Amino acid sequence: MLGQWGHMGFLVVVGLSLPAVALVISFLLGLVKIRPKDPNAIKQDTYECGIEAEGSAWVQFHSGYYVFALLFVVFDIETVFLYPWAVALRQEKLFAFVDALLFIAILGVGYVYAWRKRAFEWR
Amino acid sequence: MQIHSTEQVVFYLLAVVAVAAALGVVFAQDIIHSALFLVVTLILTAGVYVLLSAEFLSLVQVLVYGGGVSILVMFAVMITRVRDARGPLDGAQKPIAIVAGLAIVTVLVLMISRTEWQQAIPAVNRPDESPVRVQRVITQTDKGQLMSDTDAIGHDLFTTFAVPFEVASLVLLVALVGAIYLARGEEDEVT
């Protein structure tokens, strides 16, 4: 049963081990003094370039961001319905296609509403 | 506890990390770390669903819990005064919480130990006398071919449940409009 998911699991394992292996090798090379360790203020900056970070990251963000989260969740749930549609589409009749178009159109109304209400704009 | 197959190895790996992350949710000092541990637990649960051959359920788990719920939790943490919530998060209600937690564990353990679990799924070989009829419907097409549960759900969604499917989109529309109305108010419309 693991067949097709085994490949995915393999990719996950490789993806997780790549950064881990890099860190471990760096640490080991540091132990045997092959990797130089010569820190200075610029090297230890959080970002290589861009604006310098200022203040604490523990700030209260504007509640306006919550709209984006809610919009995301609604279209996230839409994906839940569209996924079995996409998988089953090849074996279904034209009806399934029209049915899903209607589904998308109804949510499209919501999208237009959000657009007209300027929910996508930042104020 | 014997190890029989690769699936069991994978299951125990997933289970150990998921439980560890769940403990992380409870014991992390920093509420953001708690939230991140929660995401790990939720996504690993999707892995357990894959092992149970519940492919669609696992996708829903990733989309709804790994995506939607964790985004909402993260945003809730972001826009509230998280600074006040640093440090140990327990308080005077700790004894009550322990009792409630133990009660839930007892109920779950009783439920799991008393359920008659189905052995393997010979759904296709065993036609109608199968105790769980849904199983057969879900794993077989009309021509008797094997199909994934996602296929089967897609098929049912556009035959038997076409109307509820459309109603679902209306429900989502109402949720969307309601959310925007509450968050943005009525006043500013583009003219």
Q: Main β-sheet of chain A: number of strands, strand sense, barrel status?
A: none
Assign the CATH class of one domain in chain B.
Mainly Alpha
CATH topology of one domain in chain B: Four Helix Bundle (Hemerythrin (Met), subunit A)
Mean pLDDT of chain B: 78
Query: How helical, in percent, are the residues of chain B?
Result: 55-70%
Are there runs of chain B of 5+ residues with pLDDT below 50, and where?
A: 125-141
Describe the structure.
The complex is a heterodimer of chains A (123) and B (191). Chain A has 2 domains: 1-57, no CATH class; 60-123, Methane Monooxygenase Hydroxylase, Chain G, domain 1. Chain A has helices at residues 3-31, 65-88, 94-116. By secondary structure, chain A is mainly α. The model of chain A has no long low-confidence stretch (mean pLDDT 83). Chain A starts with a helix and ends in a 7-residue tail after the last helix. The radius of gyration of chain A is 25 Å and the shape is flat. Chain B is mainly alpha-helical and 191 residues long. Chain B has 7 helices and no strands. Chain B has helices spanning 6-27, 31-51, 55-79, 94-114, 133-139, 149-157, 162-184. The chains are: A mainly alpha (123), B mainly alpha (191). Chains A and B meet through α1, α2 and α3 of A and α1, α3, α6 and α7 of B.
Overview features:
heterodimer, A: 123 residues, mainly alpha, flat, B: 191 residues, Four Helix Bundle (Hemerythrin (Met), subunit A)
Topology:
The complex is a heterodimer of chains A (123) and B (191).
Chain A: H1 3-31, H2 65-88, H3 94-116
Chain B: H1 6-27, H2 31-51, H3 55-79, H4 94-114, H5 133-139, H6 149-157, H7 162-184
Helix pairs in contact in B: 1-2, 2-3
In a nutshell, what does this entry contain?
The complex is a heterodimer of chains A (123) and B (191). By secondary structure, chain A is mainly α. In chain A, 62% of the residues lie in helices and 0% in strands.
